[in-house]
Batch of 2 targets.
Target 1
Amino acid sequence: MKLRLDAQKLSALKNYLEASEDAEALTAREYVADFYDAEAPFSVDLSFGKDCVYVDGAAYLRYDEAQDGWYIAERILDEDTLLALLEKSGAFAP
């Protein structure tokens, strides 16, 4: 999936990921991030292009009390849904 973002949102997202304790930079342009505090917790694997972000994977997370951990519950396949989740999570805030 490809998310077309303007320069301001691209920059805000990169800054958010750099500052987040729940995001890991795999390379200078690729991140894995978990949004545990979101209304519907989710995880994304993103790589930054010139004028877009490529989503290599995105999924809702579910906490399993018996296993005491977070696990992938359902894949997120819709661009609008993922954009809304990122927006609600503050990932585009300046």
Target 2
Amino acid sequence: MDAVLLARAKEVRDDGSIVEIVIWELPAPLPPSQHRYKYRLYFGAAGVARVRYDNERGKGDHRHLGDREQDYLFTSVEQLLADFQSDVERWEQS
């Protein structure tokens, strides 16, 4: 099986902020992740990331909230999207 693109979307909002989502299903997990998804979820403006979720080889699942980076416990694509949306909404309200 080759990698399969599951989602790719980019929204440029009226205020200039950007939301971008890219999710791939891989033939095998990307270590140290135990799941078969590669993802990049981004919310930011003026070239500055405010909320970002991603995973990469050797680093695994994590998220960035402003300047802070923390591990992220991936359970499903649906939960990933819900958690990202929740963090974006919290950021917008702050």
